Automatic annotation (TrEMBL), chain A:
This is Branched-chain amino acid ABC transporter permease. InterPro entries: ABC_transp_permease, LivM-like. Coiled coil: none annotated. It is a multi-pass membrane protein. It comes from Sphaerisporangium corydalis. The chain crosses the membrane at residues 29-50, 56-80, 110-129, 136-158, 178-199, 230-252, 264-290, 302-323. It is found in: Cell membrane. Keywords: Cell membrane, Membrane, Transmembrane, Transmembrane helix. The lineage of its organism: Bacteria, Bacillati, Actinomycetota, Actinomycetes, Streptosporangiales.
From TrEMBL, chain B:
The keyword Signal applies. SUPFAM superfamilies: Periplasmic binding protein-like I (SSF53822). Signal peptide: none annotated. It comes from the Bacteria. It comes from Sphaerisporangium corydalis. Residues 41-384 form the Leucine-binding protein domain. This is ABC transporter substrate-binding protein. It holds the Pfam family Peripla_BP_6.
TrEMBL record, chain C:
SMART domains: AAA. Pfam families: ABC_tran. Keywords: ATP-binding, Nucleotide-binding, Transport. Transmembrane segments: none annotated. GO terms for molecular function: ATP binding. Residues 8-241 form the ABC transporter domain. The keyword ATP-binding applies. InterPro entries: AAA+_ATPase, ABC_AA/LPS_Transport, ABC_transporter-like_ATP-bd, P-loop_NTPase. The keyword Nucleotide-binding applies. This is ABC transporter ATP-binding protein. It comes from Sphaerisporangium corydalis. CDD domains: ABC_Mj1267_LivG_branched.
Amino acid sequence: MTAGTGGGAVTAGTAAEGRFAVRRWSRTASVAAAGSVVAVAALAGVPYYAGTSAEQPLVTLFCLVALASLWNLMAGFAGLTSFGQQAYLGAGAYALYAAASMGLDPFAAIPLAAAAAGVLSLPVSFAVLRLSGGHFAVATWVLAEILRLAVTLAPSAGGNTGVSLPGVSGYDALLRQALTYWWALAVAVCSVAGVYALARSRFGLDARAVHSDPVAAASAGVAVGRTRRWAYCLSAFGTGAVGAVLFANTLYTQPGSVFGVQHSVAMMFMVVIGGIGTIEGPILGALVFFALQQALSGYGPWYLVLLGAAGIAITLFAPRGLWGSLAAPRGWSLFPIGHHISGTS
Amino acid sequence: MNGPSLPRRTLLKGVGLGALAAGTAACGSIKGSGDKAGDKIVIGFVSPQTGPLAGFASGDRFVVDRVRGTAAYTGGFAVGGKTYDVEIVVKDTQSDPSRASQVARELILRDHADIILTSSTPETTNPVATVCEAQGIPCVSTVVPWEAWYFSRQADPKNPKPFTYTTMFFFGVDQFGGCFVPMWERVSTNKTVAGMFPNDADGNAFRDAYPAILKKSGYKWVDGGAYTDGTTAFSSMISKFKSEECEIFTNAPLPPDFNTMWRQAAQQGFRPKLATVAKVLLFPADTVALGPLVKNIATDSWWGPYMPNTSSLDGESAKQLAEAYQSASGKQWLQTLGSVYSLFEIAQKAFTSVDTPRDRRAVATALQKLNYSGISGVLDFTRGPVPGVAIQQPVGVQWKEGDGRFPYEMVVVDNSLNPAVKIGADLTPTNP
Amino acid sequence: MVSTGPLLELDRVTKRFGQVTVADELSLTVRPGDAVGVVGPNGAGKTSLFGIVSGDLRPDSGQVRLGGRNVTSFDAAVRCRLGVGRTHQVPRPFEDMTVFENVLVAAQQGGGARGREGFRTTARVLAGTGLSDLADRPAGRLGLPHRKRLELARALATRPRLLLLDEVAGGLTDPEVAELVGMIQAARADGLAVVWIEHVVRALTSTVDRLICLAGGRVVADGLPADVLASPEVKEVFLGTGSVGGVGGVGGVPEGGGGDGARA
Ligand SMILES: Nc1ncnc2c1ncn2[C@@H]1O[C@H](COP(=O)(O)OP(=O)(O)OP(=O)(O)O)[C@@H](O)[C@H]1O
Ligand SMILES: [Mg+2]
């Protein structure tokens, strides 16, 4: 959708109508893109040169990056502040359980689990997208709770005690962990790259318009409902993949924790701290959240208090998030999504 | 660029590389977490020390310190002619199964644990055992009904496969029946049993198992209905029990739900002659909420100072261990003291019977073959209902008023399953 | 574009908000290329009429037809793509987006312009509305006159067959109004029909060839501007409300008394 607009400037209009050079790319963006490719390649090699002790924390980090980016797709671009994404985290995990119980290889079944979450989100979207703002947020949360109860009550889903991932005992432990690591990396990269591509596309512009003013967006011809639905369902799809990867990593899942609202709180924390509505923000937010988690986890129950305090401090001193406050005044953009105009009549 | 052949060749090469990476070659070159140097054996211990399940683990720190102080542990383990220092790393699950899985992985990857011991409820033991089985790390679990530990970790519970690295000791539904039915026999009733079982893993397991046990012994079964955990209104259940004239009561609920239900039962005049509860009132702290209403409620006990057992580490008796805990903490003894202590006895037994502690397969095999007597009595892993499971024999106890130091204490009233334990008092009807 | 039948037909449309009737069995026809002015006191139902036409409001009864097709159940986005472009009385820019992006959305979605075509349309519309110099500015930082122009630009970028203008001249200075009238007249050259709500009657009468007076959700008068302004019913309506200046002056109807809520 951005064909021909990706590299350099595009001239639009004639001299009589006003000349514009529309810029969607920059030297910084090229450097950032190249750097990202190198970084991803380096990360892909971690199982070969760093080993499992490096893989484990990175799996967590990758899942956080993916979750933050996916939540940002909804909240930052389409303006849907959901508090119920844990529904899809759980859907992905339990779909993986179902697939693996039927004898499918758990790693091959991860895309299936993601698809299951995406499919589930479609009928759900018709119910929750009728609502807006706080009502929407509460409805999504309630829905996640309903799903949690349904899983708890479902026979053969292990009840509140949870279930182990079947079908992994055939794997060598090192290979299993490396596969989990690669899946986590793939899901993170696809989430960030996918959200980036969407944000740069026509869909991204529509979503930002819908976020800003749905009535005006409709007047401009934007299919408001469809735009929101895509954002919601794609986010659910990706979140389902994360749920499946997390399950493959922990090997154990339980409704009480996978459907817990703390996941939504974490997603919101990362996005708001990092900078909502940007590509860089959620990544930075995930890094900060991960670092805080690692640094503060030794403080036991104080961990949450300290995390909250850090969150409040950052929102007070950097209301647009760390990236927003850092980059916007200086005009920085590693992953540009807008249209910049240079040259006039 | 010379024609379309180049892209195709490149593509094939790419696919080949991908297959190579994912295939057998990957197995060989993927790095592990690094080999451990030194002459140290690391024992990981995982239990719910904070959060809703903390009651189970309130004595764990004490037991770990006590074990660290035994000669067997301070002097190190002699394995294959070499003496290894022993380090115990304790992890808290915060009562969260996901965290349990996470700390188990930390123990394996960061602390290089050679064995992982875990205790208290499936929410703790199952994630830990799952990780250990997948990672190939020996693991011993306890304080979890063996059925919940064994079947719910199976890919196909109808066609279960024994585990290689994970073992456990405790008991199961059969022992609950074997413990409760003799107590029922000793109170003259109309043989009608009221069952309060929630719609959760434990509740449903009991609901499935009880009717058969009851029928065999000639009792009539009245199911109060599968309620949701956290329910606060039990009137309809209670009136059902009343109209069916139930004189015996049994259950397997969450502790707060039982407190609510038992108070409402007292108010609404449901006074069964004998209450034998499972899963609740296991620990002294649980009795505080109900006060006098706990009097003469019966339950099962798998460990206590009344057990005629001694430590395989240093010969300390069960009574001494309980008293040491009471004087160190000022709190009343609890059953998990013995269970957690035995985990460390088992670890010591297993390591000292192999050639090298790094041979995980050998350690796991030693666990499966273990048969010893320690502070939990005889634990025989070779003759359980399934491989790797050792069954304990609980006794029937009643909560009776204490001798002044603590308001209520457990007194043995039935030893049908474990005659070696001395009876402390007569069985008294809960409601005369 | 070339159709012989009516472009817009409202057929006995009724819309109520509780006790307030904003459209009362209202019927109206606009033909391709028409330029219709709409006047009426505050609360007459003018903006609501636009909402009913654009799809932002669902009528309680009656039908809306566009080019002969019943569009009553279509939402605003679909009607926009079918050729209805509207401005909002209180401007509603996408504040976090640049002026260029604001118009680009409309060109892409409402106007169906893809890729470079979208850029070209946007550039042309921005030039035509005098916003070229502000193209890179976030719309949230625009003042009221420019916000009004942006409303117009966005509506034009959807390439409408029917352009609904809701008090685009309200709050503007005389030279600004003159400029705006020029833009609207230039747009009309493409053959689109314009319906224009305005309290600034001088601006209206210079452009429209037909004037409608609304009050209480009803058409009070409909005809040539001079006739409508002179009609006793219209005078009565404006005298009756007293909320907007008296009847008289050039057009006989008040100037700039609009309920323009936007204060940038
Ligand atoms: N969404 C709504 N809910 C309730 N009442 C409404 C709504 N929209 C408009 N109204 C009421 O309907 C009446 C007509 O409003 P409308 O905006 O159509 O008037 P108008 O003719 O455009 O007035 P103005 O000249 O002030 O712009 C007013 O009394 C207004 O308060
Ligand atoms: Mg109005």
